[in-house]
Amino acid sequence: MQYNPANPLIVQGDKTILLEVDNPLHAEARDAVAPFAELEKSPEHIHTYRLSALSLWNAAAAGMSADEMVERLEKYSKFPLPTSLPADLRDLVGRYGRVKLRRVDGSLRLVASDKPLIEELARQKGVREYLGERLDDVSFAVEALDRGVLKQGLIAVGYPAEDLAGYAQGAALAVNLRETAKSGRPFQVRDYQRGAVDTFHAGGDVKGGSGVIVLPCGAGKTIVGIAALAQIKTETLVLTTSTTSVEQWRREILDKTDLDESMVATYTGDSKAIAPVTLATYQIVTYRPKKNGDFPHFGLFNSRDWGLIIYDEVHLLPAPVFRVTADIQARRRLGLTATLVREDHREEDVFSLIGPKKYDVPWRVLESRGWIAEAQCHEIRLGLDPNRRMEYAVAEWRDKFRLASENPGKDDVVERLLERHDHPEDRVLIIGQYLKQLRRIADRFDLPLITGSTGNAEREELYARFRRGELRRMVLSKVGNFAIDLPDANVMVQVSGTFGSRQEEAQRLGRILRPKEGERPACFYTLVTRDTRETDFAHHRQLFLTEQGYSYEILDEADVIAEVHESSKSAG
Fold first, then answer.
1. Containing H/E element for 522?
2. What pLDDT digit, counting tens, does each position of 41-95 carry?
3. Where residue 208 sits, what CATH number does that domain have?
4. In principle, which of 90, 129, 146, 317 could form an S-S bond with 66, CB 3.0–4.6 Å?
5. Domain boundary at 345, 361, 377, which?
6. In the chain, count of helices (H) and strands (E)?
7. What Rg do the C-alpha atoms of the chain give, in angstroms?
């Protein structure tokens, strides 16, 4: 037993873990438990983690043993572990892989570790209807088309299957990475990107071929996808979040590989081309003319002999895509994301249908190595003026969050932050949820505004001007959350957000984390109206930053105004 009263962890019998933030071993302990524990709360002094079944199974799928988890808990615990916890943890972790999907003589079968388990599973609703002929004491035949829904059923009853049934090779594609990109710059896959691809592919073994890679925004997830394409050398379908993201993938593929333009097609609202490498949006594949009608673009999944399907921003995968993904389990599937958290709580579907987490690197590790920019995170709290305070007090509950989010007092704080970041090298993005608020800010400071209704041509032109340095400031609606390529942005001012969305916090912080030339750090500001529903939701959003090892500096609006005022006096 290695427990010590000076340690930062308190491990409890209900599988929660309390972590003292002010303890000298806080960061070390956090990094030790984060791979297998899920962060639930992160107030100032005590953070709460939970040993959930899914967090344990993801860690097991990534190669961590139950004994290693117990050792880490013992090493950083203040007190002896609850007597039942090591056994409970070993039991839960041991459930992963007790049932396996295998291919034998070309046929699919479900194989259990012992006869009592297969008998139990064969009686479970959601499992029994997908089992075919009984083959022996521990296995059943399974129809190939039921491979996905059976895995969903198994995880629902607490026995996630290890899928070792292998994959269709797909149509071959001659593709190689360039040593010098088409743009003329040297190109090399970074070591962690190569490690992610190698872990996913597993040398072509059945243990590889499906799973999720978790890397920070700005760490080059697109390059991981392109390197996987070049390693597997098969026709590939890429699904991503927007037309802007499709164009970014296309630029990167043509720049970093030897494929020519005829081999890379885009399938969006604007064009419906299909080629050996096809890039499509989730929006187009989930489009249907009538609410209860068919999805006419689902045929894309079977339009060619795909050997690899890449799901970009897999935490945003729309529900209908799970349905079609359940039917294409024989294709290799690579999910890319900065966070496994889904706001619809369908993490189990990602695990079952895309695959478990195979590889991740904490943000702070990449920051320490210079692969992503150092980030300074600030929450600025401000009040409502008396008239609006009364309006907020009498408002319906559902309207309170929006009233707090659109607080006009935030505009003055934005002005102060623009003064703070008036250096010629600063590139500032102001982002928010509500169009009325964003138009007000754009008009006041005479800044371009990009929303969902901005045409693609105008949008791309504004992004290009920002990349060239002709524009140094820009206002974005929530379209700025996803896959925009603005590598020089180093300041983000978040004036409003989507309730308590951790995934949105991930995307927005990631916009400014590309490594920069020079010494300018990345600065992330979120403006929050105090004593309102917005404050409550802000605490939930901050869970994401805490997971990554960042912390907010809490500022009052008066602090920011005073600081800028002092700076201007000094300059004068």
1. strand 522-529
2. 777 688 889 999 999 999 999 889 999 999 999 999 999 999 999 999 999 999 9
3. 3.40.50.300
4. 90
5. 361
6. 21, 23
7. 25
